[in-house]
């Protein structure tokens, strides 16, 4: 699914019609919640746009997390700074 978000969205619309918007919103809310992100609905953004934004935010958070983790010399243990 991650590589074919537009097709997934189109398939939902083909199957569920107008109701697909509610399904997409429910999916997005759950995704954002699992990633500890705030879901904000924006005008004309597509399902794919929201997933791409979540992916970028998650990748930024992971980079920040990695830069905040250091290896303590001689312990072999990671510690948060």
Describe what you observe in this structure:
By secondary structure, the chain is mainly α. It has one domain. It has three helices and two strands. Strands 1-2 form a two-stranded antiparallel ribbon. Strand 1 (69-71) and strand 2 (78-80) form a beta hairpin. Helix 2 (20-34) packs parallel to helix 3. The radius of gyration is 18 Å and the shape is elongated. The mean pLDDT is 84.
List the helices and strands and how they pair.
Elements: H1 5-16, H2 20-34, H3 47-67, E1 69-71, E2 78-80
Helix pairs in contact: 1-2, 2-3
Provide a quick synopsis of the model:
By secondary structure, the protein is mainly alpha-helical. 59% of the residues lie in helices and 7% in strands. It has one domain (2-80).
Biggest beta-sheet profile: 2 strands, antiparallel
Terminal CA distance reads 36 Å
The radius of gyration over CA amounts to: 18 Å
Number of strands: 2
Number of domains: 1
The H-and-E topology, N to C, reads as HHHEE
Give the helix tally: 3
Mean pLDDT: 84
Per DSSP, what share of the residues sits in E-state strands of 2 or more residues?
5-15%
Category from helices, strands and their pairing: mainly alpha
Order of adjacent strands in the largest pleated sheet: 1-2
Fraction in helix: 55-70%
Structural shape: elongated
Poorly predicted sequence stretches spanning 5 or more consecutive residues: none
């Amino acid at each position: 699914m991650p590589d074919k978000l537009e097709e997934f969205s189109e398939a939902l619309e083909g199957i569920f019609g107008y109701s697909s918007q509610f399904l997409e919103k429910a999916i997005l809310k759950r995704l954002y919640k699992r990633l500890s992100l705030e879901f904000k609905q924006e005008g004309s953004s597509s399902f794919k746009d929201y997933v791409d934004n979540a992916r970028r935010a998650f990748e930024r958070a992971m980079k920040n997390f990695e830069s905040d983790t250091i290896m303590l010399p001689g312990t072999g243990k990671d510690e948060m700074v």
